[in-house]
């Protein structure tokens, strides 16, 4: 009789106990698969939301001068000349190797404008792109829809004494205030925001761009690589990644991954203990059987092979059933745990790893019971008859 026939017959003979052993593995593996699937969905959800927080790459003309501005306060009143980009060159940004990772590209022209005898920062933007980038902007009135309409920052509106619907004039051009931004805490609070073409005309900077804000979707790609690729296209530009936003994103993701890993390790430990205890009980119950095997000439390795083969079969069965059950559970639970979240689909790589882990876990946990069974003295075993 082949050794594997003995193992299979023993599994069939002890269906209830083996099913209990497999059930422990199924619960353990399905828990791990469910946690990993939910974590993957939450990771994608977090990344998508963080990507909506705005630009994470800023491109400005390269200059040797140091900024004398901190927290919105200028010291020394130094004003130095800087080079500006040609707006016609901005589409070259989307020719980089990782162009698929680029989201909104929002160019801006900046300059000082005289409005009612007061110097105000005039910022020209392409409103469709700017509003897609600054999704948190809230306003009184409406966002500009025409070239002769402007949006005022909260501080600028207060200083100029303007409200939605008021007329405004600067650079010899007439504008109408369509809306006023609610305080954002950013530079736009002090700015008058106009259509980029109109602002270029007022500032006498036709076709020029002062800076470009870029939103990059960095899942699976290093943001530093994107900045280097953009810098290659614009040698005269200083391309800076806003590392604070990226670091916050990575820390949030790592936090979820650490939580999932910690729970998975706990579940694996409990599963291994369950398998070992069950196999130890099985060996103790089979003392007479093992004694007979040794008495008729089975070697120590033969007895170990019988026990370990049983463990391997149950490990594979438990792993396959656990992966299937875990994906079904993730499909049902994900919409309840993650708002508007959808099951990301079966991850075959994770499934394969969990299957191998279940088999290895079953073998390792059964190793000591197998060794103990192999070392059993035939005379002691037969004495139990």
Automatic annotation (TrEMBL):
MF GO annotations: transmembrane transporter activity
Q: Which GO terms describe its cellular component?
A: plasma membrane
TM region(s), chain numbering: 259-283, 303-330, 350-371
What is the protein's major site of localization?
Answer: membrane
The topology of this chain with respect to the membrane is: Multi-pass membrane protein
Please indicate which superkingdom the organism of origin belongs to: Bacteria
Q: Where in the cell is it found?
A: Cell membrane
Q: Which InterPro entries match?
A: ABC3_permease_C, MacB_PCD, Macrolide_Exporter_MacB
Stretches assigned to the MacB-like periplasmic core domain = 21-206
- Locate the ABC3 transporter permease C-terminal domain: which residues? 263-378
Going by the UniProt record, its keywords in alphabetical order are: Cell membrane, Lipoprotein, Membrane, Transmembrane, Transmembrane helix
UniProt key word Cell membrane: yes
Task: Tell me its family.
Answer: Belongs to the ABC-4 integral membrane protein family.
Q: What is this protein called?
A: ABC-type transport lipoprotein release system, permease component
Q: Which organism is it from?
A: Desulfotignum phosphitoxidans DSM 13687
């Amino acid at each position: 009789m082949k050794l594997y026939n003995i193992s299979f017959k023993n599994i069939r003979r002890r269906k209830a106990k083996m099913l209990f052993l497999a059930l422990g593995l199924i619960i353990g593996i399905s828990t791990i698969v469910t946690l990993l699937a939910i974590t993957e969905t939450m990771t994608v959800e977090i990344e998508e939301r963080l990507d909506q927080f705005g630009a994470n790459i800023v491109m400005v003309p390269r200059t040797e001068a140091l900024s004398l501005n901190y927290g919105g306060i200028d010291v020394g009143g130094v004003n130095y000349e800087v080079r500006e980009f040609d707006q016609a060159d901005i589409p070259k940004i989307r020719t980089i190797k990782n162009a698929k990772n680029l989201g909104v590209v929002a160019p801006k022209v900046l300059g000082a404008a005289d409005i009612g005898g007061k110097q105000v920062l005039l910022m020209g933007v392409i409103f469709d792109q700017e509003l897609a980038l600054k999704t948190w902007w809230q306003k009184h009135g409406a966002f500009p829809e025409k070239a002769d309409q402007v949006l005022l920052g909260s501080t600028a509106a207060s200083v100029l004494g303007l409200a939605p619907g008021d007329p405004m004039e600067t650079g010899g051009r007439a504008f109408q205030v369509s809306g006023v931004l609610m305080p954002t805490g950013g530079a736009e609070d002090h700015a008058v925001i106009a259509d980029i073409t109109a602002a270029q005309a007022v500032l006498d900077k036709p076709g020029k761009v002062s800076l470009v804000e870029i939103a990059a979707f960095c899942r699976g790609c290093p943001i530093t690589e994107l900045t280097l690729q953009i810098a290659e296209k614009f040698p005269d530009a200083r391309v800076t990644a806003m590392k604070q936003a990226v670091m916050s994103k990575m820390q949030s993701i790592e936090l979820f991954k650490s939580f999932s890993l910690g729970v998975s390790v706990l579940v694996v430990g409990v599963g291994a203990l369950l398998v070992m205890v069950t196999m130890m009980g099985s060996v103790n119950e089979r003392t007479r059987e093992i004694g007979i095997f040794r008495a008729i000439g089975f070697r120590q390795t033969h007895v170990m092979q019988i026990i370990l083969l049983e463990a391997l079969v149950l490990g594979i069965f438990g792993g396959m059933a656990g992966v299937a059950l875990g994906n079904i559970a993730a499909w049902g639970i994900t919409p309840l745990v993650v708002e508007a979240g959808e099951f990301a689909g079966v991850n075959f790589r994770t499934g394969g790893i969990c299957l191998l882990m279940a088999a290895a876990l079953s073998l390792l946990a059964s190793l000591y019971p197998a060794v103990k069974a192999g070392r059993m003295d035939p005379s002691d075993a037969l004495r139990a008859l």
